[in-house]
Every structure is written in structure tokens, then in C-alpha cells.
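Schema walk-through. Below, the input block comes first and the output block second. Nothing else is stored per chain. Lengths vary across the set, and this one has 122 residues.
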Amino acid sequence: MLGRTHPVISALSIARALHELATDAVNDGLFAAPMAATMSRAAREAASSLGLFIVARGPDVTHKIGKALDDARVDLEALAELADMVCTYDLTPANTVHLALAMRYTSEQTVNRLMLAESSLT
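--- output ---
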């Protein structure tokens, strides 16, 4: 993996960024479509990289860590879908906040799962 960021570390970084952006959207009541599109793309790429890592390293990790990684992968895919909703629908400010709250909660869970995996893999 010379010159490349570890998939778990990369996914953790993206999950943290998604959490911050969702928190900003909750506080501001705004969610810009270009930002949501970028978030969606980043979450999908992180989920894909994490999926490849899980397949490659599956036999080498404990059940607990494997489950945490797979749950984080699913969470990242869900975050991508939630971000896509911002781009697809004309949301009211109240709906924007509800969606951002869901994204914030999901990204927080993702961060926790990836931190657990990161600590056991290093």
C-alpha cells in the first residue's frame, strides 16, 4: 500500500468529515446540493474501498472487527444515499434538519465503528 492511505483510515477521515458537515447542516438549517454531491461521492468511494479491504483481510480479522467494518461499510453507503436525497429533492428547512440529524447520527456510529477497527488493526 505504498503511497496510499489505508482504507480504514481513509474511511474514518471521510466519516469524520461527514459528521462535521452534517453538524453544520443541523446548525445552519442548510444543505447545499454541491456539498451533498461531494459527500455522496466520497462516502461511496470509502464504502467501496472498505468493501475491498474486508474481502482481502476477512480471514485475518476477528468476528467483532469484521462486523464493525462491514457495519461501517453499510453506514457509508447509507450516508451516500442520504446525501443524494439532498440533491434529488427540494427539501424544506425542517426536512433538511431532519435529514442532517440522521446523517449526523449515522456518521457518528460509523466513526465509532471505524475507530474500533483502526485500534485493533494497528
